[in-house]
Amino acid sequence: MRYTILSALIIAAFAVTGCEKAFDIEEEKAAIIAVMEKETQTYIDRDFEGMFSTHIQDSTNIRLTAGADNYVFAEGWEDVSRHMTGDETEDDLGIDLHITVERTDYRFKICPQSAFVICNQKWTSAFDEDVIEIESIQVRYLEKVDGEWKISFVSFIGTSGYPDEEEEGFDDDEVLFD
After folding, report:
1. Dihedral sign, CA of 51, 54, 60, 65?
2. Which of 62, 92, 99, 177 is the most exposed, having the fewest neighbouring CB atoms within 10 Å of its CB?
3. 177 compared with 72, residue with greater pLDDT
4. What is the DSSP string of 55-116?
5. What's the predicted TM-score (pTM) here?
6. Domains recognised in the chain with CATH numbers
């Protein structure tokens, strides 16, 4: 009797663990990149419902952007969503503006329910003859909710647009710090 119960428990344990889907890191990377691409494209398209679907919508959502001209820190979904749909972003996107976004050099740390992603990004916007390129490093934290990756944290660190030392009038021999 004891062996029958023990055997049944062992068989049940194998059956339960055998039904779990294996964690495929390449599949998870592809799913994460797809969420990031969807978030960007829906933002460009001004499809806020689509963009919002890629985010965790609670008080822990954070957006931190920094560049040569300013920075933004938005904490909590209310502030993040207001920033993404606000008047200051409306000027960034227009019907005559052509935007392309290229991400390269992805670095991942992926766990079954969370992921940390860093990549380089080049945002190119063209309006008539004017072309502006903004280069940055993107840092994102995602969480898996009901089997789908959702963005919980975005940091955009601008790496272009800063004045060169030559533009500032510094000589190579000049001592900047003692």
Report:
1. negative
2. 177
3. 72
4. B--STT-EEEEE-SS-EEEEESHHHHHHHHHSHHHHTT--TT-EEEEEEEEEEEEE-SSEEE
5. 0.76
6. 23-161 (3.10.450.50)
